[in-house]
Amino acid sequence: MPDHHTFKTQRLMLRPTAPEDAAFIFELLNTPKWLQFIGDRKVSSIEAAGEYIREKMLPQLERLGFSNYTVLRKEDGAKLGTCGLYDRQGVEGIDIGFAFLPEYEKKGYAFEACSELMRAAREDLGLTHINAITDKDNFASQKLVEKLGLGFTKTLRLPGEEKEVLFYEKSLEKEK
């Protein structure tokens, strides 16, 4: 695999999610909030999580040079969550997404990781616009997306999904 961007903040390191993260991804994708707000991805084993990484995350990384990042705490290497830039089917443009294990929520890690990815999107990857999608009932994610400076623009239904989601946007050009 080519050397893709790894990003660092004061407390965190964000590196592309890889097959060796399968046990962590299995745990994350099966947390109650993931299942409630993002949806059941039918990842029922560590082996299935490895396949999910290979089929859903790595192709975009190879194609665009960015995708899903595993967020690690620098001080001890603990895997806290994920943050990524996604070329999502049915949505024009790139959106930012994030999910953290319950024990690492409400500690500022998601804001720190997302802020760094938005900086990288603008400065390193040359993106001029960023989107975000949240569940209508995920008030914590809505608050974080708004804190990142994205504004609500509409509701939409993603391909193959039953529920409508909230769609947010932000121009990155103003920040150059």
UniProtKB/TrEMBL annotation:
<keyword id="KW-0808">Transferase</keyword>
<dbReference type="GO" id="GO:0016747">
    <property type="term" value="F:acyltransferase activity, transferring groups other than amino-acyl groups"/>
</dbReference>
<dbReference type="InterPro" id="IPR016181">
    <property type="entry name" value="Acyl_CoA_acyltransferase"/>
</dbReference>
<dbReference type="Pfam" id="PF13302">
    <property type="entry name" value="Acetyltransf_3"/>
</dbReference>
<feature type="domain" description="N-acetyltransferase">
    <location>
        <begin position="12"/>
        <end position="173"/>
    </location>
</feature>
<dbReference type="InterPro" id="IPR051531">
    <property type="entry name" value="N-acetyltransferase"/>
</dbReference>
<dbReference type="InterPro" id="IPR000182">
    <property type="entry name" value="GNAT_dom"/>
</dbReference>
<protein>
    <submittedName>
        <fullName>GNAT family N-acetyltransferase</fullName>
    </submittedName>
</protein>
